[in-house]
Amino acid sequence: MRSGMPVGMLFAMLAAMGKTTISVESRIRDRLAAWAAAHGRPMGEEIDVLLDIAERNEFWERVSVGYAHGHVATPAEEEFPEYADLPAAGPFPTPPDMVDDIPQTVHDR
After folding, report:
1. Among candidate residues 57, 16, 28, the one with its CA nearest the CA of residue 8
2. 12 pLDDT more than 80
3. How far apart are CA 60 and CA 54, in angstroms?
4. Structural domain count, the chain
5. Is the pLDDT of residue 79 over 60?
6. Collapsing DSSP states into helix, strand and coil, what is residue 61?
7. Span 65-87, mean pLDDT?
8. Alpha helices in 5-106 (DSSP H)
9. 91 prior amide bond cis, ω within 30
10. pLDDT of 34-62, one tens digit each?
11. In a domain, 58, yes or no
């Protein structure tokens, strides 16, 4: 840091500020301004919305990667982490296999 200011003090000052300025290329600024205007929001609010969308997309991408690898996170894994490395249960029966012993119609009863 040029000022020699301790990092903690700098972060505290930035956290106390309500607004800040960021430096972006003019073409990015213009795109963002147009996008914000199209949605009727100020640029700061538009950035907030875009970040929400990006975070949500990242979350669902991680979920889909988990499904693609056959892993489905469960609350039990969080509650019992010592069992989280056990193989997944399955294969689970499909609906026709599940109802073999149940009469299909009134006449089958």
Report:
1. 16
2. no
3. 10
4. 1
5. yes
6. helix
7. 66
8. 7-16, 26-38, 43-68, 75-79, 95-98
9. yes
10. 999 999 999 999 999 999 999 888 888 88
11. yes
Confirm whether 19 is domain-assigned: no
Tell me how far CA of residue 49 lies from CA of 20, 29, 45, 70, in angstroms: 17, 16, 6, 32
Closest CA to 88 of 57, 66, 61: 66
Containing structural domain, residue 62 = 43-68
State the pLDDT confidence band at 1, using cuts at 50, 70 and 90. very low
Distance CA 55, CA 61 (A): 10
Residue 64 within a domain: yes
- 75's CB contacts (< 8 A; 6+ apart) are none
Residue with structure tokens 């119609």?
A: 105
Largest CA distance in the chain: 87
Tell me the two tokens of residue 54: 């990006």
Do 20 and 14 contact (CB within 8 A), yes or no? yes
- Is there a domain that residue 51 lies in? yes
| Predicted confidence band of residue 72 (pLDDT cuts 50, 70, 90) | low
